[in-house]
TrEMBL record:
Protein name, as recorded: Metalloprotease-like protein
Tree of life domain: Bacteria
PROSITE patterns hit by this protein: PROKAR_LIPOPROTEIN
Alphabetical UniProt keywords: Signal
InterPro entries attached to this UniProt entry: Uncharacterised_pept_Zn_put
Keyword Signal attached: yes
Compositional bias (Pro residues): 293-304
Range of residues in the leader sequence: 1-22
Pfam families membership: Zn_peptidase
Region feature (Disordered): 32-70, 275-304
Keyword Signal appears in the UniProt entry: yes
Length: 304
């Protein structure tokens, strides 16, 4: 998965543009399809991945990724430094999609969340906080308190190492989906917030493909399905009933992939839409049911 040459050149000219999964508090807001849009409301941290460059603009509102745990390297040779390009690219593509298309679905003005970005969750003294608590290791977060997104370095390194670069794009698009939910009227936010965030994430990624700002490589869709499975309730590192099973996550992701942003809200009126057979270009029966990114032996496990 990669940003297009056109996007990369534009982003560079715009001088540095950039790119969780947590225990969610209530999501409320004032933005609505066809009504009024507003900024996010405050709440408690929302974790969406437990184990789990901004668009070109003249005035960038996010910063490029930095890492605390820069020495992370797995047996495959993947390092956090090598992942920064994918992280920045995912941020650029996802934020760019919402910047370009917010007015197609909502009223008001879109403002991106603050990107805290990479952190070292194994060190609670340096990890960023949400709701007065340090963010956990092997997790990613949207924090309504300060409207920010963040992801643990070990989570991204292990996921990318064992699954592929699509893992990075999925985690970031999903967390951005929670930021979008925080900007919406509660009537537009599904009770299954994690599944709807999958839908919104898919709408952004595939919308970017349609815009020509993102290109899929061979195998990327299979990586996405594997990633969704790794973040599902079937995995030992996710909270029961929090994220849905692997097939539910693929269904909701496919909903956003095929129907775009509106489908992620239309399903609240017609719940049967989310039970339609998956049409993503992989066989959902091949979705793995074993943990993909376990924490290292003796390390802190994911929660939520």
């Amino acid at each position: 998965m990669r940003i297009s040459v056109r996007t990369a050149v534009t982003a560079a000219a715009a001088s540095g543009l950039v790119f969780v999964l947590a225990a969610c508090g209530g999501v409320t807001g004032t933005a609505a399809v066809g009504q009024g849009a507003a900024g996010p409301t405050t709440s408690t941290a929302t974790t969406t991945t437990k184990s789990s460059s901004s668009s070109p603009r003249t005035t960038p509102t996010t910063s490029r990724s930095t890492a605390t745990a820069t020495d992370l390297t797995l047996d495959s040779g993947v390092t956090i430094e090598e992942l920064k390009g994918d992280i920045d690219g995912a941020q650029t593509v996802v934020d760019g999609y919402w910047t370009a298309h917010w007015s197609d679905f909502y009223t008001g003005t879109y403002t991106p969340p603050t990107v805290v970005g990479l952190y070292d969750g194994t060190d609670p003294d340096t990890a960023p906080q949400c709701g007065g608590e340090p963010l956990e290791a092997y997790n990613a977060f949207y924090c309504p308190d300060n409207d920010s997104v963040a992801w643990d370095a070990s989570l991204l390194v292990n996921g990318a190492d064992q699954i592929g670069d699509s893992w990075v794009y999925l985690v970031i698009a999903h967390e951005w989906g929670h930021a979008i939910q925080a900007r919406l009227d509660s009537s537009l936010v599904a009770q299954a917030q994690e599944l709807q965030a999958d839908c919104l994430g898919a709408a952004a990624l595939y919308g970017a493909v349609a815009d020509g700002t993102l290109e899929f490589d061979a195998g990327d869709e299979q990586e996405l399905v594997t990633s969704l499975s790794a973040l599902s309730d079937q995995m030992p590192w996710t909270m029961t009933a929090d994220h849905g099973d692997a097939f539910q996550r693929v269904q909701w992701f496919t909903l956003g992939r095929n129907g775009g942003v509106n489908a992620c809200h239309d399903v609240l009126v017609d719940p049967s839409a989310s039970t339609a057979p998956s049409t993503i270009d992989v066989d959902p029966s091949t979705v793995p049911t074993s943990a993909i990114v376990p924490p290292p032996t003796g390390g802190p496990g994911p929660t939520g």
